[in-house]
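Bug #77: duplicate submission created two jobs. Keeping one. Sequence:
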Amino acid sequence: MISVILSATLNIALTRSQLEYLQGKGFSRWARHEGISDEELLKTIKEMESGLVGNNLGSNLYKKRIARKGEGKSGGYRTLIGCKLGNTAFYLYGFPKNHKANISAKEKRALKELAATMLGMSDKNLQKLSQAAHISKYQTKRINIMDKSVLDAVHESAKELHKAGAIEQQTMRKFDALCLPPVKQMKGADIRRLREREGVSQPVFAAYLNTSKSTVSKWERDEKRQWEQH
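Kept job's structure:
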């Protein structure tokens, strides 16, 4: 049987013979908000086990429909699932069909990276996630966390994995690059004008930014880019 883990900002649902929730932010809260039952989530995974995998997006990422209560699947929900068939499945993201038509190529890359990261975690790291979930069972909040963009949700999931010690800083940087908007680089003269406008010296400005006076000086002379700290 597939072990189902509901994810997106550290929601963990570990199943052996039944679905057990440790509910926090993310997919499981969204599912409850939308009235998607535990049984429906398990039914969806069982369909995948029987060969009804939905849309295979590659790299163990699947898009699977879930029916809205009282309606058919065509007008219901779309879920993005990281899954190794016969082994483990992670619900990564969900949305109503009328809320979002499809995911972009960039969103797909980020979801595939998250799926690969989570599916590749050791039992020890999965246990770290479980221990890090300081949350109560069946906690309910009327917040639709999936109103977040796909990239925001993926990045929050990665941050929670990193916070729990389940992924390294290098992997977190990869998610930063995939999910965060590019940082606009400032010219040295603009940095100097900003500092002078705030009325602070280079050492004080450096302290605000948790860097060195030498680095600020090099920024202002265009000898170093802002992402280069040393």
